[in-house]
# Entry
Amino acid sequence: MFLENYCRITDDKVSFTRQQASDFAKQIADDFNPLHNIDAKRFCVPGDLLFSLILERAGLHQEMSFKFSGMVTDSTKLNIPTEITTVASIVDDNQKEYLNMSVSGDYTKNSNSITALTRAYVEFSGHTFPHILVELMKECQVMINPTRPMIMYESMSIHLDNLDFEDITLRLSSTTLDIDGKRGNACLSFDLVSQDKVIGHGKKFMLLSGLREYCQDTIDNIVTQYNNTKALYIAQK
# Structure
């Protein structure tokens, strides 16, 4: 269980300290979204950590879709299923839902396949900003609010032709950004590749809020600040 350092399991309830969630974002996903900083006012656990735990606990299916419906904090204790037949939800003890999912097709609990897909997806997902989204915002001539940048993970889905793999990578295939006033919905489509062969496809959807007219200087400052934060973290390790 390579995720054991990034969560706590007590009486089958899963919870996270701020340090654990922040470490996962930075060390595994290479994600320096300020929402995952331990001192963030609106701190939340990375959605990719929830995705990873679901695969580790409940297994990998050929068809999987996930929709996030609530922000998990360090005070949240979750019930994460260990088996999914068709649909399931991640809820707390008050039945508040944080994520719902649906699955179909063949199924495996092969740890090598699950770890390979988890690490590949999380690495791809963690590089969404600035690598992918900045270029997409430039194309659409909009940008996020520099003083309160909000980019939220909304949903994702994957399809695998088969589950017989032990190494896999994700390759971006297309991007779109639909704009509605000050909100945007970004769709990142990707291929799943094993041994130079495409064995599946997927999509990740993200919500961008506080959109305004694009300014290259402002974007450059946001990216510089992001990269400086990452460099400082690495230097301290």
